[in-house]
Amino acid sequence: MFESAIFYAFGAVLLLSGIRVITARNPVHGALFLVLAFFTAAGLWLLLRAEFLAIALVVVYVGAVMVLFLFVVMMLDINLERVREGFWRNLPLALVVGIIMVAEMVTVVANHYWGASGAPAAERYSNTKTLGLILYTDYAYAFEIAAVILLVAIIAAIALTLRRRKDTRAQDPAAQIRVRREERVRLVAMPVEKE
Questions:
Q1: Region at 162 (left for phi over 0; alpha for psi -120 to 50; beta for the rest)
Q2: For the chain, how far is it from start to end, CA to CA, in angstroms?
Q3: Among 1, 8, 47, 182, which residue has the least CB neighbours within 10 Å?
Q4: For residue range 4-29, what is the model confidence (pLDDT) as tens digits?
């Protein structure tokens, strides 16, 4: 009973924070509500005894992605009026998608009460250990391919955003080393002045 109360409380917080993400006028507030939504979702994963997924959600999304979102939102000068121009035009599609998501969630919850119940887990069972064993044995090649694709994406993003600026000054060490003494010092012969 207590676990169900916590689940519904977390679900309500997650729903309200999700609504505030899309209705907040300030983008920084929206990003902070998204952090709250991620933390609440991690709490729900913990209630479902999926510790690894909860920790990964906090580390990856809150620790990395949200910091990136906040930097982008705070560094860019976002025109909020242009962002909100298409709100009413896209509202019907957004409502359809939202209704489908709510129906999926209701189906999952109804399956818990009226559907088939799973076998109880063994006493010393660890889903993190099982996930690691499956990921690094059965799906090792797929995991490595995903890592290489992410590495290529990182390098491509750096290459696409790297721009040479003409107004910056930089030293060329190779040109400094090639310089001879005659190019640096010039002796000028001047006649001696007598008083």
A1: beta
A2: 110
A3: 1
A4: 778 888 888 889 889 988 888 777 77
